[in-house]
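Exercise 3.2. Students should predict the tertiary structure of the chain below and write it as C-alpha cells, then compare their answer with the key that follows.

Predict this chain's 3D structure.
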Amino acid sequence: MAVNTTPRARGRAPRRSLGLFGTSVLGAAIGIAFLIPLWWTAINSLRPGAETFRYLNPLEWQTFLTLTPTFDNYVALAGSDLGRAILNSLFISLVTVIFGLAICATAAYGLAAFQFRGRGVLFSVVILSFLIPFDAIAIPLADMFRDWNLQNTFFGLILPGLGNGMAIFLLRTFFLAVPGDLVEAARLDGLGWWGVFWRIYLPLSVPSLIGAGLMLFLFQWQAYVWPLLMGTDRAHIVGPVALSNLQGQFAVDYGVLFAASVILILIPLVIILGFQRYFIQSVSTTGLK
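Answer key:
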C-alpha cells in the first residue's frame, strides 16, 4: 500500500503536534488558575488569622508558601459545631444518594423503556425541573414543609434532594443506549420488566449510576439556603451553615474560617477523585444513543 509522502501530508503532523501541545498548555493554565485560590486558602489555614492578608500586596513567595505552619486553627475548630455539622451533612448526603438513586433510576427507566402517551411532555417537565434554580423555589417550599411539621427534621432536609432532574436525564440517556435486542431476548427468556431493569439496565449503567450519585451527593453537601431555612437548631446544622456561623458579628478569624473551608472541601474532593473515571465516562457519553 502506498504511503502519502506529499509535502502537504508531511506538514500536517507537525501542525497536529503543535495544536495538541497548545491545547495541553491551555488546559494546564486553566487548571492552575482554578488551583491557585484553593492553594492560597489551604496555606492560610496554616497561619494565624492576623497574617491572612499580610502578603497580598505586593505578591511574594510567602503569599503561597509558609515556613512556619501551625495547626492551631484546626485545633480551634474542636470547640465549634463543625464536627456535628459534617456528620449531619454526610448522613444527609449518603441517604440522599441511596434513596435518590433508587427513585431517579426508576423514573429514568420508565422514560426510556416504555412508550406511553405524554412521555415527551413528562420528560420536558424533568428537564425544566433542573433548569429552574432551587433557591428560586426554596422559600415557598419551606413554608409548605413547615405546614407539614418537617422543619428541624432530617426527613425535611433530605426530601427535596431525592428527585433530581439532572440525574434522571443522565440515567435516561444511558438507558436509551441499552440494545433493544438484548431487552427482547431477556423478555423471551421470561424476565419481567422489573427483572430487565435489575439484571440488564442497572449492571450496564454502573458509570452512569456513579455519576448521578455524585451529583446527588454534591447537591446536598453544598446546600446552604435550604438547610438554613429548615435546620434552625443545633441538632440539624449542616457544614455550609456551620461555616457561615464561624464569622463573628464584629470580627472574623480568617485562619479558622479557612481551616473549616479546607475540611469541607477535602471530603467531596476525595470522593470525586476516587470515582473520577466513572464520572468522566458518564458525562462524556451523555447525549449519545
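Discussion points: Residues 84 and 237 are 8 Å apart (CA to CA). The mean pLDDT is 85.
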